[in-house]
């Protein structure tokens, strides 16, 4: 597939979606003028086929909203993840964004905000939704002092481990990095590969680097390096990169991790080939409620906060971040209604998401009042006690720099780069911006 | 319709235009217009969403100085070299298949199987084969006593070659089919005459069959080289160009720039450079492999 084909596909997708939007656009105008009703167009990315639970919760919320707000109807369009991204891009070029839709944080919304396509939602956050969000989540959608998204999901990264495998070897879960190294050696001696890691996707390796950086340099060092008030050549960040290579040299990660996808690493953890796996809370259903995973395995999985390193670091500081959030289109003709709906949706989603869809919302949740698996309750409590959540580095960075970061992560893990070169690659990329 | 009626229809310009129009329209909309557009986008600083800023040839100049682009171009050219060399193997296989050996029919069908699979399925299959812990390849290597078999897709020194194998395998059936058809086209009488004159099977193959299908061989060389230069699918699915660009080719680099880095302007420029490189190489290869005399039986 060369340039031609990619473009071909794009062009035909463009043509098709222009046609579609042209039709639906004229249709909705007719409807609103005829009946005097207001129609709010809403686009989301949880199709019935692949995300049934999400899909149902969304429909319930919409039904409730329509019942409570006479005269307002929600016109729904559902697409799967990748198609959603493509369509949003195409709609944005023709000025036909839905009134309410979904966006990702930071780097993703930058071009949309730059093109003046998303409406600032600070008034909602200050009034209707004041104190509703977990600190640090709505901020991920802020740009130049205004907030353009209302987060729906929150994921934090923990080190999941297979308790049964630990017990079999007579090992304790490591509380410090030094203990982690001992555990790694012990598993290796038994011929068991210690940590499942699929670094073909590179954001997975980035999680390890970020946590080591957080523990060694505190919550702010990495953030500052990215926003240019600090530097990647900070000793703590270089040391974090060195620690990554120490883990690699100790054979902490499964064979050939740089060629494995995250899915493959996950399946190694879930088929008990590797006892440890660093991943975010979006995987929680696999360890709690997912009936297609053997009960025995789900019972043996537990999690720990990332260990301290050299006696330093705050285990209540997390790497993570919000997933998708809602935006309201700047050009919307029914902006007030759209904003009302967005605020209503966020609140209702926050009340229902964990229990009904297994998604941890970015709004505060009272764990005690809900009927949840123990692991969910524990994680929600961790969240309430979190001292800091550092947003995923590749999300924080602009798409260009994120690509350099991900490539460098692969090179660092593959021992193709020294920690110093790793720091320099980041400095070079960031200084070009 | 008789030949006369046919000629009558074809002499009417309107009819000709009508017959050509649908195909011409499709090709223009789907190929030529996007081609020109991508060259044009290459002149812009554009993230794919916001406003386009005209920056002249800056993207093209950056591309020409971009070492990552030339690394990926080198990988593409290596693939082209290996694809061309592998044609010799396919040719040998076809000559054997075409010489009435037992089971030739069955074998021909077996060689064709990879062509019937979609690229993604092939990629998934080979990802499993190459899996460093549980893959069939490393399991076999360990069973014959090699303790630390390579991490095929993770080791930057071998990943490129590891990924070439499924690519070559994928297209083997296609080239064998072409050669087989060309060989079957050679009149039996020529072979018969050679045999009577006492030529050995090897002499028949190299002195008679090969020269007679020279034109077909030269076409397959062009196909193999052009196909390699624009190659994308398996690399995208199996390694996404990684680790750290070790298996990046021109098309996957272009994709990464446009869709991962949201650098549509630069990505388009790289796509256009890819087009130019491919065209230049095609012209050169056509010149080099051109056959002067036409063969008629």
Automatic annotation (TrEMBL), chain A:
Pfam family name, one: SBP_bac_8
Q: Where is the signal peptide?
A: 1-22
Question: What InterPro entries has UniProt attached to this entry?
Answer: Bact_solute-bd_prot1, SBP
Its domain of life?
A: Bacteria
Q: Which UniProt key words apply to this protein?
A: Signal
Among its keywords, does the record have Signal?
Answer: yes
PROSITE patterns from the xrefs? PROKAR_LIPOPROTEIN
What is this protein's record name? ABC transporter substrate-binding protein
Q: What is the lineage of its organism?
A: Bacteria, Bacillati, Bacillota, Bacilli, Bacillales
